[in-house]
């Protein structure tokens, strides 16, 4: 269990993390989602006692991180950067970590085996690929067989097989009753692994909900209709009080109507339809809508001129 | 996981419906979740020392700097010994031990480098975050690093200084040299080794404060050489006292005091340099500790 209460971090004028309050519970995978620069890594560093919070508090099973008697068996973490001396072998890297927490040396071999690095255990870390470095970081996180695991962008640099492996690993760790907290900026990745979601944007909490609820609340469903007699179709829909939006390439999108209903309507008016399909907006879209106002580094392509201030919508939604 | 896992705890069922207000349970409530078969050990300084020992011996740069150090001290010791011996000198009652000074002065650069690298290199590689996550007590990490480094630097310097001492005494027998007394032996081996090990520990503290290897090494080499260089350019007679003090308290001169009782009437003599370095190192370690506690990793 990780509990954050009013956690805040300021760097001079800039507020990196703003008054975060949430809890990460055991037994499930909790996704920590936010665009780049949202404050995910800063939050994780504060949980681990690396950065001191400007205000607020964070506790690991009720204790501050630097008060833990056995840090590595309480919580294992994979941080974004490699955090490995390039001249040290994977084996020695893990060995010095194990020794610092009184963990038996045989655990080093076990975790190397778990992450599939046994063959390169004696190789220097500087020769490791991004994916191997990531696996070494995961091995370090698993070293103390901890109750809580925290992964910052774990799938970065992994190949599809590696991504599948880490997904399965995270799920099995949670199923053993551990607390698993994993950050990502990819909603699609989270949708496959996380049971619970914490979304932040510009350091603020935007959502703290179960995955199912998030999907239900945030995804838009609509019906896509395509017809060679587009004008007549529009008239018919309009006549039935249904609003359709043209989306440019000859198809119409209808919100709030069932496909069956539209199909029957078209049949009654003897309209030819080339497509009639219920659609679900992807979670990626839902996530982007949620964080749209709080993305720090916009690619200035279609930013509306009258963009509302970020967070306004959030406040209204919450009020 | 390859470890045998205990049966799944009862709380493993996903608690999706938990009310938003629920996370803050009553104080004292047990935190449910996974229990590891690995015995929980209360960590202490001994663990940190074991860890730092593994760290320092598992990188090649340690072996390189110590190897170059031994080469410099023994090599230059041998060379000076042979050169002096071949010129059939009259030592005029001086102890032959003092010839070891030149090698150790150059070797000091290696000790400084290794000291700085012990702390600063972790900042360069990002290893420091891993270290501090594994051992959140920052003071303990610094203490372990300082202790491990000090002992290694002391042991290696002691071996090299003693070997050079025997070499010189052996080579220069019968050249009107003085048979070194017990205290001269002690100062020329243990004394100067303690001094160099402390100088390296000072560098380690500076490395921890500066967090940048090249920067910290430059500062330390500057600290060794600058006083002499600055003193060289103090021509004005009004600055004579300052010039004198810079000479006397410069690190090379303080090191030479371990071989001969003070070159000048004033300034440090006897074991003074060791106490001065001890205070300086203590202060630097205190500063490094304060900064470590204050700054984010």
From TrEMBL, chain A:
SUPFAM superfamilies: P-loop containing nucleoside triphosphate hydrolases
ABC transporter domain sequence ranges: 2-227
InterPro entries for this protein: AAA+_ATPase (IPR003593), ABC_transporter-like_ATP-bd (IPR003439), P-loop_NTPase (IPR027417)
Transport found in the keyword field: yes
Keywords carried by this UniProt record: ATP-binding, Nucleotide-binding, Transport
UniProt superkingdom: Bacteria
Single Gene Ontology MF annotation: ATP binding
UniProt entry tagged with the keyword ATP-binding: yes
Family indicated by similarity: Belongs to the ABC transporter superfamily.
PANTHER family referenced in this protein's UniProt entry, alphabetically: ABC TRANSPORTER, ATP-BINDING PROTEIN (PTHR43335)
Protein name (record): ABC transporter ATP-binding protein
Provenance organism: Streptomyces virens
From TrEMBL, chain B:
Record has Membrane as a keyword: yes
Leader sequence residues: none
Organism: Streptomyces calvus
Keywords linked to the UniProt accession: Membrane, Transmembrane, Transmembrane helix
Protein's recorded name: ABC transporter permease
Segments crossing the lipid bilayer: 63-84, 96-120, 141-168, 188-207, 214-235, 274-292
Annotated Low complexity bias: 10-24
GO molecular function terms listed in the Swiss-Prot or TrEMBL record: ABC-type transporter activity
Disordered: annotated span: 1-24
One cellular component (GO) term of this entry: plasma membrane
PANTHER family: INTEGRAL MEMBRANE PROTEIN-RELATED (PTHR37305), MEMBRANE PROTEIN (PTHR37305:SF1)
Keyword Oxidoreductase: no
